[in-house]
Amino acid sequence: MTRLRYAALGAALAYFFDPQNGRARRNEGIKRVVRLSQKGRGRLTAKATALREGPKPPPNDVTLAHQVESEIFRDPDVPKGQINVNAEEGKVVLRGEVESAEMIEELASKARKVQGVQEVENLLHRPGEPAPMHH
Question: Where are the domains of the chain?
Fold first, then answer.
């Protein structure tokens, strides 16, 4: 293993100190290292700025409804055309028909986990059952 390391070091030295192209290769290598360090510094700066700004304000109603839809409709078994999602001041209302009681609870649980959701009113019901009454 040690011989392999020495061979790799020798090849790198020969590459960068070649009499004809070595100077250009060294300059290009230095430029790449500088660019990479600047990229990393930019990412760190963006993260530090985000931390310094504090928590984001809650999303508006339309955005919140879209975020909940994105979360609950990820599963292809969820009947997208049969569920309505509304949001108002952090409260999300789910309406519509789904096939099972388990799915009703699962969709409400997923909606509660979306950032910005303060309350979920679950008016989902199974086919043939009356829709729950609005609170």
Answer: 2-53, 61-125
